[in-house]
UniProtKB/TrEMBL annotation:
Pyridoxal 5'-phosphate (PLP)-binding protein, which is involved in PLP homeostasis. It comes from Vibrio astriarenae. One of its GO terms (molecular function) is pyridoxal phosphate binding. Residues 10-230 form the Alanine racemase N-terminal domain. This is Pyridoxal phosphate homeostasis protein. PROSITE patterns: UPF0001. It comes from the Bacteria. The modification N6-(pyridoxal phosphate)lysine is found at residue 36. InterPro entries: Ala_racemase_N, PLP-binding_barrel, PyrdxlP_homeostasis. Its cofactor is pyridoxal 5'-phosphate. Belongs to the pyridoxal phosphate-binding protein YggS/PROSC family. Keywords: Pyridoxal phosphate.
C-alpha cells in the first residue's frame, strides 16, 4: 500500500474517532483531500484508496487536473472543490470546471460564477468564506456582510448556497481552536433561520481537525497529513 493510501486510512479513522468522541453520527464529516501543488499521480493514488473529493487552490493548476482526470479517468467521478482566492478575471474557469467553491466573499464573484456556469452543469455548490479571526489581513466576509450576500445568492439560479467556510488564525491550543470554530457554527445557525437548506460547515485542516469536528464541521480540508509537506518552489 502506498503511503498516501495509508495516510487516508489513518485520517479516516481519526475522523471516525472524533465523530464518536463527541457523539456525532459516523460519516457525518467528509474528507476533502487538498491536492494543491501535488501531481496527478498523487491524486490517482488517493483515488485508488477510495477518496473522491479533492480541493484545489490555484485556478490554472486546478483546471489542468480536472481536464486530465475527465479525459483519462472519467470512471473515477471525482468531485472537485475550489478552495483558493478567486480573482474576478478567473471566475469563468472555476464556473466551467468545479462542482463546489468554498471561497465566495464578494457579490461580484458570486454574480460572475452564476452567469458563467454552463447550462449543462448542475448548480455550483457554494460556501461563503467568513473571517472569524477579525484579522484585517485575512480574506473572508465580516459577519454583517454574510446575510446580505446569502440573500443575493439565494436569487441566483446557477448557484446553490450550502453553508460557511473559514480558515481561522493558526493556533495550537485546543480550546482556542474550538472557540473559533464554534463562532462559525453559530453564524451558520443564525443564517439557517432564513436559509433552512444550509447543511455545510467547511472547517478544520491537518492541525485542528478534532476541534473543528467537535464544533460541527461537515467537511475537513486536509492536505499535508495526506500528501506530505508542499513544495511551493514553482508557485509565487
Ligand atoms: C492548503 C489548504 C488546506 C490544507 O491545509 P493542510 O494544513 O495542508 O491540511 C486547507 N484549506 C485551505 C483553504 C487551504 O488553502
Amino acid at each position: 500500500m502506498s503511503s498516501i493510501q495509508q495516510n487516508i486510512e489513518h485520517i479516516t479513522s481519526q475522523i471516525h474517532s472524533a465523530e464518536q468522541k463527541c457523539g456525532r453520527a459516523r460519516d457525518s464529516v467528509q474528507l476533502l483531500a487538498v491536492s494543491k501543488t501535488k501531481p496527478n499521480q498523487a491524486i490517482l493514488e488517493a483515488a485508488h484508496a477510495g477518496q473522491r473529493m479533492f480541493g484545489e487552490n490555484y485556478v490554472q493548476e486546478g483546471v489542468d487536473k480536472v481536464q486530465f482526470f475527465n479525459h483519462n479517468h472519467p470512471d473515477l467521478t471525482i468531485e472537485w472543490h475550489f478552495i483558493g482566492p478567486i480573482q474576478s478575471n478567473k471566475t469563468r474557469h472555476v464556473a466551467e470546471h468545479f462542482a463546489w467553491v468554498h471561497t465566495i466573499d464578494r457579490a461580484k464573484t458570486a454574480q460572475r460564477l452564476n452567469d458563467q456556469r454552463p447550462e449543462h452543469m448542475p448548480a455550483l455548490q457554494v460556501l461563503l468564506q467568513v473571517n472569524t479571526s477579525g484579522e484585517a489581513s485575512k480574506s473572508g466576509l465580516d459577519t454583517d456582510q454574510i446575510f446580505e450576500l446569502a440573500e443575493l445568492i439565494s436569487r441566483l439560479p446557477n448557484l446553490k448556497l450550502r453553508g460557511l467556510m473559514s480558515i481561522p488564525a493558526n493556533v495550537t491550543d485546543y480550546n482556542s481552536q474550538l472557540a473559533a470554530f464554534k463562532q462559525l457554527a453559530e453564524l451558520k445557525d443564525q443564517l439557517s433561520e432564513k436559509h433552512p437548506d444550509l447543511d455545510t460547515l467547511s472547517m478544520g485542516m491537518s492541525g485542528d481537525m478534532e476541534a473543528a469536528i467537535e464544533a460541527g464541521s461537515t467537511i475537513v480540508r486536509i492536505g499535508t497529513a495526506i500528501f506530505g509537506a508542499r513544495d511551493y518552489a514553482n508557485k509565487n
